[in-house]
Amino acid sequence: MLYRTAGQYKTSYEADQALFPVRQDAVLLGIILLFVWVIFPLTASEFTFQTLLIPILIYSLAALGLNILTGYAGQLSLGTAAFMGVGAYACYKMITIMPWMNPIVAILLSGFFSAGVGVMFGIPSLRIKGFYLAIATLAAQFFLVWLFEKWAWLYNYNASGAIQVPNLDIFGLYVSGPQADSIVQYYVVLFIVSLLTWLCINLTRGTLGRTWKATRDMDIAAELIGINLMRSKLTAFAISSYVVGVAGALFVFMWRGAAEPNLFDIPLSFRILFIAIIGGLGSIMGNYLGAILIVGLPVVLNLLPETLGIPISSSMVEHLNIMIVGSLIVFFLIVEPHGLAQLWRLLREKLILWPFPY
Amino acid sequence: MKDSQGYVTADGRQIGGVLMEMKNITLKFGGVTAISDISFDVREGEIRAIIGPNGAGKSSMLNVISGFYTPTVGEVWYKGAKRPPMKPYEVARMGVARTFQNIALFEGMSVLDNVMTGRLTHMNASIPAQALWWGPARAEEMENREKVEKVIDFLEIQAIRKTPVGRLPYGLKKRVELARALAAEPSILLLDEPMAGMNVEEKEDMSRFILDVNDEFGTTICLIEHDMGVVMDLSDRVVVMDYGKKIGDGTPDEVRGNQDVIDAYLGVPH
């Protein structure tokens, strides 16, 4: 009833290929944007910013980067965390070498370093695919983390071997470091995530997106209809690594405040891969749904017994949490192997018809 | 009837000069010779068929034409020039489009997107412009969408435009594949068994589309097909292959009367 599309005629191809060919989708997005840009920041506490809003956005962005590579271009990667690390360390070095630099510019530039490294480690994809490529990207994962540890120049030779985010300001307003306000950091993250999401949506619905999907679905046919596979795969690695690198810089500068090399180890890579798979490979929105489920839900579940006044010990809560989230992941994957985004797509199709059977 | 400038077919169509010529093509995989010393030409505006029993090397021949295999010996001449060894995507960009024996559509994409991939060789907006969905990228998208819609109209698949290809039945998939190849506006269209696995009605539809494509766009067509009735009705000239060798070449009537061809199909001991 609410989702009725009858009567919405398109009179040009432009209208048909618009971002929201159905009016209700635009309204829905408007409501979501209203919440994330206005209502959440006005009502959220410090705790909500630090444990829910900021991390969910950053994880979504990292998953979005991985999704471009794995979901759209079909190249499986297990090195996401390492590429995030490249972004974070590049940003750190730029800021220490050029302290006058605008931090937002530095974060956006740091993605180019991880894009370069991503292309380098993407070269094996020209000859191998599937699980074998995953192993090759695993090499990137091990090598880069090792490099973060051993190359002292990267962390300015400090004794701890970790990078510490300095206080950085834009026109006197602190955006990172211990003095920064959460709400400012939230807006910086939100701005960058929104911008990159918009660019990625455009890329995936246009020529490049079709090139990637063709490469994913059947590479031999793709080459025979005129797609340069090398270009297709390497652009996917470059753009994916760029997004992942920016997510890595945000991860350290806007959220963690400090980072050791092992922060960028395999568990983080897998966490992001899970977000992308459960959210839905080959979908932009799925990354957000996946991040809400995997990053947000445990936090909410942890708080639940206390707010409801149920007396259970905190370790018990922790165990229950793992069990509940784990079984939810299995449940969602059984109900819809193509992820939460597909679940929403099916629901939407039903809503368009509802309340009539067809 | 034939001369260097072309000829006129029985139904009165003017056939032009040589568009593509295969000169002494030999293709070996290790010790196996898939094609041995075959020469033939394809003329502009013509429907050229390649027939032969299973394993005769027909599909290998098509793969040589589309650049997927590089011949061991021999030359491919295209539009009056010798074609250097090149990657399949480069061949496609020179105006050679094809369909596949086993449908090779992009299953995860809608029919519209699949047909749009056929236009990729004509689209070259920069990546930043695409990311911003701005100016040249947007204009290019609309312009090509319009061309794709013409192909969709032509092949009568408007109703399934937005359906994911994975949900379509076999016959329609074959038609979508033809649409994708046509969207590229090729100079020569290679069809690998366009009617395999179809019922009579679907075969009739497909034959009609092939003739219409040739008629309306003047596209040169080179096809492989097992259904002799279809081949003899559609094609202007036929190459017959057996065990990697060419055993006949000529109009359908000439080929039908060729003793070697009859032997190959009836199975005379070699």
From TrEMBL, chain A:
Membrane-topology descriptor: Multi-pass membrane protein
Subcellular location: Cell membrane
Transmembrane feature ranges: 26-43, 49-69, 76-95, 101-123, 130-148, 183-203, 234-255, 275-304, 316-335
Top-level taxon of the source organism: Bacteria
UniProt KW keywords: Cell membrane, Membrane, Transmembrane, Transmembrane helix
GO MF annotations, alphabetized: branched-chain amino acid transmembrane transporter activity
CDD domains per the UniProt record, alphabetical: TM_PBP1_LivM_like (cd06581)
Cellular compartments per GO CC: plasma membrane
InterPro entries: ABC_transp_permease (IPR001851), LivM-like (IPR043428)
PANTHER family: ABC TRANSPORTER PERMEASE PROTEIN, HIGH-AFFINITY BRANCHED-CHAIN AMINO ACID TRANSPORT SYSTEM PERMEASE
Protein name: Amino acid/amide ABC transporter membrane protein 2, HAAT family
Biological source species: Antarctobacter heliothermus
Classification of source organism: Bacteria, Pseudomonadati, Pseudomonadota, Alphaproteobacteria, Rhodobacterales
Automatic annotation (TrEMBL), chain B:
Alphabetized PROSITE patterns for the sequence: ABC_TRANSPORTER_2
ABC transporter domain ranges (all copies): 20-268
GO molecular function per UniProt: ATP binding; ATP hydrolysis activity
InterPro entries: AAA+_ATPase (IPR003593), ABC_AA/LPS_Transport (IPR051120), ABC_transporter-like_ATP-bd (IPR003439), BCA_ABC_TP_C (IPR032823), P-loop_NTPase (IPR027417)
GO cellular component: plasma membrane
CDD domains according to UniProt: ABC_Mj1267_LivG_branched
Keyword tags: ATP-binding, Nucleotide-binding, Transport
Family annotation (PANTHER family): ABC TRANSPORTER ATP-BINDING PROTEIN, CONSERVED COMPONENT OF ABC TRANSPORTER FOR NATURAL AMINO ACIDS-RELATED
Protein name as annotated: Amino acid/amide ABC transporter ATP-binding protein 1, HAAT family
Source organism of the structure: Antarctobacter heliothermus
